[in-house]
Amino acid sequence: MANETRIRPDTESLILSGEPELEYQPVVDLTSGRLLGFEALLRWRHPDEGLILPGLLLPWLEANGDIVQLGEWVLMEGCQQATHWPQNIQLAVNLSLVQLRRGVGSRAVSEAIARSGIDPGRVTIEVTEHAMVEEVAMNDLRTIGALGVELAVDDVGTSWTSFDVLRRMAVNTVKIDRSFVGSLEPQQGINRLVVETVVSLAHSAGISTVAEGVETSQQAAIVREFDCDAAQGYFFAPPLSIELATELANEPGFCFSFEGAGWAEHQFVGSPSHEPIVHEPYHRPA
Ligand code: C2E
Ligand code: MG
Ligand code: MG
After folding, report:
1. How far is the CA of 54 from the centre of ligand 1 (A)?
2. Nearest alpha carbon, ligand 1 atom 21
3. Which atom of ligand 1 is nearest to the CA of 214?
4. Which atom of ligand 1 is nearest to the CA of 182?
5. Residue 120: inside a domain
6. Which atom in ligand 1 lies closest to the alpha carbon of residue 23?
7. Residue 64 is part of which domain span?
8. Backbone angles phi, psi at 175, to 5 degrees
């Protein structure tokens, strides 16, 4: 984790010689195994280094403010993409605290919705618990909620925001941090307790729950047993390319299995002929 957040000295040159790209990780309904939607995850396509994960770049992008423009691109690209999926498939996009603190997150969300024409109810905006303690960020978040999108709080369990605040902020979903879910084996008493408590507090506040980082069938069984509503994780599927995600979204009746080897053994026959998608270029800040 410490490695992920340290800014590499060559980060700027990595960014200048690469281009942003999105991958999409499935979110799975834990009752039916149905695909509920995808979380858009930022990557950087670099000619020599391949696909770079956001942990390396975000601290730099946030420190110099470039995340504002990039965040607008992520929303636009993701919303445009989701219009090629069936109406019942949700798109989740992460918003940086920097966007909310500057009060510009709401403008980015409303422009992406207006330009793509997506139904705002199909968009979920993910923020971290830190957005729930700063007044300016909370105001921007309230404006975002008023646009008709869903709100999700990411990485829950890492800083214990009050569920009363989440309820008052009209949060729809909490995502339980993978540090708790990823070590959910039978002997991990504390982590089981955290997951069970978060699910029950969330449900009593009328908030739905997503378990992040489900990697094994055993973890999938435990989060189902604790009544968690949905899950994400390598067991179900890793973040997928645009092409694969669109194929999966358009696969009628596809359901994820809760047993066996998970994604590794899934096969689905997709139609390779979905319409070509026109992507907006990313305009780097001058
Ligand atoms: P997040 O929003 O909590 O996203 C989930 C992260 O967990 C992703 O990492 C995903 O690849 C990873 N993951 C999913 N399933 C598993 C699993 O089973 N095991 C493990 N070990 N990891 C799993 P990723 O893509 O590296 O993203 C890291 C973080 O970067 C995200 O965490 C989010 O906070 C941030 N991020 C990603 N895209 C964006 C973006 O477009 N804008 C902003 N502001 N932040 C973003
Ligand atoms: Mg997220
Ligand atoms: Mg998370």
Report:
1. 8
2. 213
3. 18
4. 19
5. yes
6. 25
7. 2-265
8. -110, 120
> CATH number of the domain that 29 lies in?
3.20.20.450
What is the Å distance from ligand 3's center to 154 Cα?
5
**Is residue 79 included in any domain, yes or no?**
yes
- Number of domains within the chain: 1
CA distance 256 to 270: 15
In angstroms, what is the span from residue 178 Cα to ligand 3's centroid? Answer: 7
Q: What is the pLDDT of residues 87-137, one digit of tens each?
A: 999 999 999 999 999 999 999 999 999 999 999 999 999 999 999 989 999
What the block records as the tokens of 144 is 């975002």
How many C-beta atoms surround the C-beta of residue 177 within 10 A? 22
* Best residue for ligand 1 mutational test, from 19, 52, 94 (most atoms within 8 Å of Cβ): 94
Q: Report the pocket of ligand 1 as residue ranges, CB < 6 Å.
A: 25, 41-42, 53-55, 58, 71, 74, 94-96, 126, 154-155, 178, 212-213, 215, 232-234, 239
In whole angstroms, what separates CA 110 from the centre of its chain?
18
Establish if 286 belongs to a structural domain. Answer: no
Spatial contact of 145 and 127, defined as CB atoms under 8 Å apart: no
Residue to mutate (ligand 1; options 1, 4, 41; most atoms within 8 A of CB): 41
pTM, 2 dp: 0.93
The 10s digit of each residue's pLDDT in 205-239 is: 999 999 999 999 999 999 999 999 999 999 999 99
Q: CA–CA distance from 92 to each of 78, 122, 154, 183, 184 (Å)?
A: 8, 9, 11, 25, 25
pLDDT band at 246 (very low <50, low <70, confident <90, very high): very high
Q: In terms of DSSP H, where are the helices of 39-162?
A: 54-63, 67-82, 97-101, 105-116, 135-146
Assigned domain for 285 exists = no
Q: Please provide the DSSP assignment of 78-97 as one string.
A: HHHHHTTS-TT-EEEEE--H
